[in-house]
């Protein structure tokens, strides 16, 4: 039997998030009256916390049967998972702090629903159904992918002719990445680092690896906290953009000696390695804000360490004799493994995209490919968000619309 205190805590968190996600509430009301997902079975792997629960409630209100698990071993909030499992037509298999085997066992249980739709964050369900549960593929209408890393995996699958279902790159919607990836990741990453370390950021040298939209947000919030920001990049255009935004730009080999706090946001493997660890200052702090825990080569760090110990909740110290390196949350996605994830107001738009893209998959017979979010969905969500914020904007006049369609006008 589930602890009533756990359920109460989970329900309180979900209610708080729901009250701060007005766009998704509007969509949920429409789903509840129209039942566009009636008879649909949805398999989900997302960070199971309060905002995710509001998305699940929205899809269930549309008539769907849902099975959900986590997409990261440390990001599940057990009280929210317990509360979500009590919802009608919802089965939740997510638990916090699971082993790799337990993580994939839960994904298998989710797939046992024999889904018509997949909602993924990191593409682990989609990968699993393509490699080990291929008998389920004929039932699948399509999938939606939440994050940059997952979209990269799907694009690779498509390019190698391995993708067998239509998918929508929800991450690439303007009302997702411009806000969620930048403002959501930026704020929640520093919230997690600050609440975990309780150390000052102002005046410190902060190294941000990667200057995509997540890196932009992390750098922006670090600067706002008073840090001296250093950016490392492999993309010349992004590196130049970071410099024009006022940050120092250099290689990681150079930055390794300077940084007090390192945050990885690249989505790639071995961004920090043995060569960097040996150059770092005593007491440096390492955190990962990418989706998978591969950006720091912790196997190399462990092999270099004279001793390893837990020095604070969610902080592990690697003593290299000459200096100590502190890693937050075993380099799992820091804003969720050591915090509460993105603010509800920004996930309001991200998960509205998810809900409407699920409906788009049900209503349309899409080709097998990685599809962009339809522009009309992006525009509709932006319009709703402005409306609930009480913001009005101008409209083009007939003369202006005519001018924009013509090509004859010159100087």
TrEMBL record:
<feature type="binding site">
    <location>
        <position position="268"/>
    </location>
    <ligand>
        <name>NAD(+)</name>
    </ligand>
</feature>
<dbReference type="InterPro" id="IPR015878">
    <property type="entry name" value="Ado_hCys_hydrolase_NAD-bd"/>
</dbReference>
<dbReference type="InterPro" id="IPR036291">
    <property type="entry name" value="NAD(P)-bd_dom_sf"/>
</dbReference>
<feature type="binding site">
    <location>
        <begin position="147"/>
        <end position="149"/>
    </location>
    <ligand>
        <name>NAD(+)</name>
    </ligand>
</feature>
<dbReference type="InterPro" id="IPR000043">
    <property type="entry name" value="Adenosylhomocysteinase-like"/>
</dbReference>
<dbReference type="GO" id="GO:0016802">
    <property type="term" value="F:trialkylsulfonium hydrolase activity"/>
</dbReference>
<feature type="binding site">
    <location>
        <position position="233"/>
    </location>
    <ligand>
        <name>NAD(+)</name>
    </ligand>
</feature>
<keyword id="KW-0554">One-carbon metabolism</keyword>
<feature type="binding site">
    <location>
        <position position="121"/>
    </location>
    <ligand>
        <name>substrate</name>
    </ligand>
</feature>
<feature type="binding site">
    <location>
        <position position="146"/>
    </location>
    <ligand>
        <name>substrate</name>
    </ligand>
</feature>
<feature type="binding site">
    <location>
        <position position="342"/>
    </location>
    <ligand>
        <name>NAD(+)</name>
    </ligand>
</feature>
<feature type="binding site">
    <location>
        <position position="181"/>
    </location>
    <ligand>
        <name>NAD(+)</name>
    </ligand>
</feature>
<dbReference type="InterPro" id="IPR020082">
    <property type="entry name" value="S-Ado-L-homoCys_hydrolase_CS"/>
</dbReference>
<dbReference type="Pfam" id="PF05221">
    <property type="entry name" value="AdoHcyase"/>
</dbReference>
<dbReference type="GO" id="GO:0004013">
    <property type="term" value="F:adenosylhomocysteinase activity"/>
</dbReference>
<feature type="binding site">
    <location>
        <begin position="212"/>
        <end position="217"/>
    </location>
    <ligand>
        <name>NAD(+)</name>
    </ligand>
</feature>
<dbReference type="Pfam" id="PF00670">
    <property type="entry name" value="AdoHcyase_NAD"/>
</dbReference>
<comment type="function">
    <text>Catalyzes the hydrolysis of S-inosyl-L-homocysteine (SIH) to L-homocysteine (Hcy) and inosine. Likely functions in a S-adenosyl-L-methionine (SAM) recycling pathway from S-adenosyl-L-homocysteine (SAH) produced from SAM-dependent methylation reactions. Can also catalyze the reverse reaction in vitro, i.e. the synthesis of SIH from Hcy and inosine.</text>
</comment>
<dbReference type="InterPro" id="IPR042172">
    <property type="entry name" value="Adenosylhomocyst_ase-like_sf"/>
</dbReference>
<feature type="binding site">
    <location>
        <begin position="210"/>
        <end position="215"/>
    </location>
    <ligand>
        <name>NAD(+)</name>
    </ligand>
</feature>
<keyword id="KW-0520">NAD</keyword>
<dbReference type="GO" id="GO:0006730">
    <property type="term" value="P:one-carbon metabolic process"/>
</dbReference>
<dbReference type="GO" id="GO:0005829">
    <property type="term" value="C:cytosol"/>
</dbReference>
<dbReference type="GO" id="GO:0006556">
    <property type="term" value="P:S-adenosylmethionine biosynthetic process"/>
</dbReference>
<feature type="binding site">
    <location>
        <position position="176"/>
    </location>
    <ligand>
        <name>substrate</name>
    </ligand>
</feature>
<dbReference type="GO" id="GO:0033353">
    <property type="term" value="P:S-adenosylmethionine cycle"/>
</dbReference>
<keyword id="KW-0378">Hydrolase</keyword>
<keyword id="KW-0963">Cytoplasm</keyword>
<comment type="similarity">
    <text>Belongs to the adenosylhomocysteinase family.</text>
</comment>
<feature type="binding site">
    <location>
        <begin position="289"/>
        <end position="291"/>
    </location>
    <ligand>
        <name>NAD(+)</name>
    </ligand>
</feature>
<comment type="pathway">
    <text>Amino-acid biosynthesis; S-adenosyl-L-methionine biosynthesis.</text>
</comment>
<feature type="binding site">
    <location>
        <position position="335"/>
    </location>
    <ligand>
        <name>NAD(+)</name>
    </ligand>
</feature>
<feature type="domain" description="S-adenosyl-L-homocysteine hydrolase NAD binding">
    <location>
        <begin position="181"/>
        <end position="341"/>
    </location>
</feature>
<feature type="binding site">
    <location>
        <position position="180"/>
    </location>
    <ligand>
        <name>substrate</name>
    </ligand>
</feature>
<protein>
    <recommendedName>
        <fullName>S-inosyl-L-homocysteine hydrolase</fullName>
        <ecNumber>3.13.1.9</ecNumber>
    </recommendedName>
</protein>
